[in-house]
Each structure stands twice: as structure tokens, then as C-alpha cells.
Amino acid sequence: MQPIFRLTTVAGALALLLALAGCHKDDDRRVEGPAERAGRELDQATEKAAEHLEKAREDFQEAAKETTRELDEAAEKASEHLSKAGDQLDKAAEVVGEKLERAGEKVQASAEAARQDEDDEKGKAK
What we know:
Elements: H1 2-22, H2 34-125
């Protein structure tokens, strides 16, 4: 039985050594391989890109708010100008209407005078 006991002891010790070899402390300083280094650098680059994208998104939102505010101000000013222009057009139309009315009255007076002259000449001719 001793050979089996020895074999069991050796196998147990070997299993224990293998189990301990698979364990390592968290503070183990081991040399990282090229794939680990590339993965770490990729993670860092991804984090930086995410930070830049977040900053760009915030800048874009701020620019959009500013542009909206400026467009609102421009629309308000344009509305004010259009309102003033509309008032000025109303006044101009009123003045033009009055002048046309006076011109029409003069044309009528001139036509009446011409008719009167014609009637007077016909009366003299008879």
C-alpha cells in the first residue's frame, strides 16, 4: 500500500502546487505583454475620445442655444421694422390717396369748365 500512498501524496502535492501557481496577489508586479499594453492604450484613447465627444456635445448645445437666441432677437427686430414699414406704407398710401382725390377734383373742375366753355360757345353761335 505504500506505493499507492506515495502516489496519492505526490499527486496531492502536485495538485496543491498547481493550484497555488494559478493564484497571484493583486499587487503582483508582472510585465505586461504587447496585447495588454495595446488594450490599455486603447482604453485610454477611448476614454479621451469620450471626453472630447462630451465636450463637443456641450459646446454644440451651447452654440445651438446662442444661435436660437440670436435668431429670436433678429426675428423680433425684423417684425418691428416690418410693423414700422407697414405704418409708413399706410401713411404714404393715405397721402397718395389724398393727392389723387385732389387731382381728380381738378380734372373734374377742368372738364366742367371745358363743358361750360363749349356750352357758352354753342349759345353764342345760335
